[in-house]
Amino acid sequence: MRTDFGKVVVIGYGKATGEILKYTDVRRTDYGYELEFIEHEPHALGVTRQICEERGIPFASMPDKRALGAYLAEIQEKTLIVSASNNFLFPAALVERENITIINFHNALLPEYPGRNAPSWVIYRGEERTGITWHYVTAGVDEGGIIIQKSCEIGPDMKAYELTEALMDLACEGFYECFDSVLQKNAAARPQRFSPDRRMYRSFEIPGDGFLDLSEPEEKVYRLLRSVDYGKSGIFPPLQMEIGGVRAEVLRYRKIVPEKRQEGAGLLYLPLPDGDLLKIKYRPL
């Protein structure tokens, strides 16, 4: 197999990035490129450093944006940069260089839901399906040509962390399917078409502005709770709400059958359309 790329650089963190890193390592015997990994956002449960140590892949930790940008700007050979679960914004000067090609994984079906925390927003807005996109990186955020997309259903009780895991699996599948065509430069990328009301979701934005409005329909309340639920990752601060004229913080929630209802301090029960109850544990602030 032939490719003009002499180097592949993987940037990211997390399980999917680890799988993609292992795959690119296996495939370098087919193409002969050099491989290296850059960790821009350190992760407490990261597996990439161990993978690099086990496989002899050069590893670098570059949390500083300027240092990372400067390092990438020094690359002279023809290089494919694989941005997987990576939030570094590549400088326009780098993107426009002829020897650099960058592909990025986005956890939504572009052109919809560009920006950050897409799994949260699709749950919050009541979407029934979502998916992943591998696309070429251009100067505009999440605007490059689409290489491949894969979709999945959003279950009625699916939480943000569960959806994120499903999307990571799809990201790996999509990458395996398009990797050869990207390296051989025959990927049939299609341009995105943007609607006039397309918006960018920022990292500081929280669904519902972080407030659980109990006057909203119970189904929407449940969607908001699920949309910010990343388990112990702590991506968002705890939701707040007002109950009995007092501001309170949501501690946890569960969907239960009515027979399991138990009264107690700091407990709130809301009826859901399917006949179950939404149990919310809270504490006054």
Quick rundown:
It contains 7 helices and 12 strands. The protein is α/β, with parallel strands linked by helices and 285 residues long. The protein starts with 6 loop residues before the first strand and ends with a strand.
Give structural attributes.
285 residues, alpha/beta, 5-stranded mixed sheet, elongated
Provide the fold topology.
Blueprint: E1 7-12, H1 15-31, E2 34-39, H2 48-55, E3 59-61, H3 65-73, E4 79-84, H4 92-95, E5 100-106, H5 118-124, E6 129-136, E7 146-153, H6 160-183, E8 211-212, H7 218-227, E9 240-243, E10 246-256, E11 267-271, E12 277-284
Please, could you describe this protein's structure?
The protein is α/β, with parallel strands linked by helices. 28% of the residues lie in helices and 26% in strands. Strands 3-2-1-4-5-6-7 form a seven-stranded mixed sheet, covered by helices on one side. α1 (15-31) packs parallel to α2 and α5 (118-124) runs antiparallel to α7. The longest helix has 24 residues, at 160-183. The model has no long low-confidence stretch (mean pLDDT 95).
Compute the number of strand runs.
12
**Proportion of beta-strand residues:** 25-35%
Rounded Rg: 21 Å
- With helices defined by DSSP (H or I, 4 residues minimum), what is the helix count? 7
Instruction: Give the rounded overall mean pLDDT.
Output: 95
Q: Looking across the biggest beta sheet, what order are the strands in? A: 3-2-1-4-5-6-7
User: Which percent bin holds the helix content?
Assistant: 25-40%
Global shape: elongated
Query: Oligomer, anyone?
Result: single chain
Order of SSEs = EHEHEHEHEHEEHEHEEEE
**Runs with pLDDT <50, length 5+?**
none
Distance between the termini: 63 Å
